[in-house]
Amino acid sequence: MLSIANFNMHCGMDGWGRPYDYLGSIAALAADVVVLEECWTDADDESGGQAGAAAAHLGYQVVAHDIGDGRRIQPQPDADDRWIAQPSFRDRNRALYIDGIRPVRPTVTTLTRWQTAHPGRMGIAILVRPELPIEASRILHLHLLRADRLRRAAIVVDLTVDGRPLSVAGTHMSHMLYGSPRNFAELRRRLQAEARPDAVLAGDMNAWGPVVQVCLRGWRRAIKGRSWPSWHPHSQIDHILVRGALRPVAARVLPDAGSDHRPVRVQLEVGPA
Q: What is the pTM of this model?
């Protein structure tokens, strides 16, 4: 058996920039493998950032990769959420400003919220329990989309579970309006060639399940349920997919863990090779 969880941790803040105990939230997932999106590392942090801190807290192995530069706002412990519908879409209320590929608008740089934010890097990561040694890992770089502000990629790690060699991939895809179908097609081809036949793919896909299923032919959805936004979920954009002989035996969307996304967790049956 293999338990795997996916969590877009929103850099340790909720949708309004209020900090939460992200280390406790990740530990509570109680999974053999944890795939993370939107892990933050301050510009002057050489210790591995939030992904490294989570791995050290759990005693897990970690493979992390930065996909964008930007600014993370100062914690807003007293933020008021009563009137903001989708805070992360409004410049004056953003928790993150991504400006590594293109600068933000001049109207943004005049905001105190932006000027006092911490520069750093945002990325993806895979954490693996030490009893499952990572045999190999690699980064699959995807083409930069014209409208995107992040350099999309996937992390792939190779493991052997219950005698069966398999791969786990983690990613954070762009929005459909930015042209993500191109990246989906590219990712599907790359995983066909560079991941083992039995494989798991987890991540924030920024797309609903049926769209993901069409874009990633040959992969099966292991979980179905609403995961976003965490305070009143109406859509599933956080997915775990499988291919080959892996079979989900239990799956659930977990309760609000502090981020603007809810974690998803799947228990997989892994037969002998």
A: 0.94
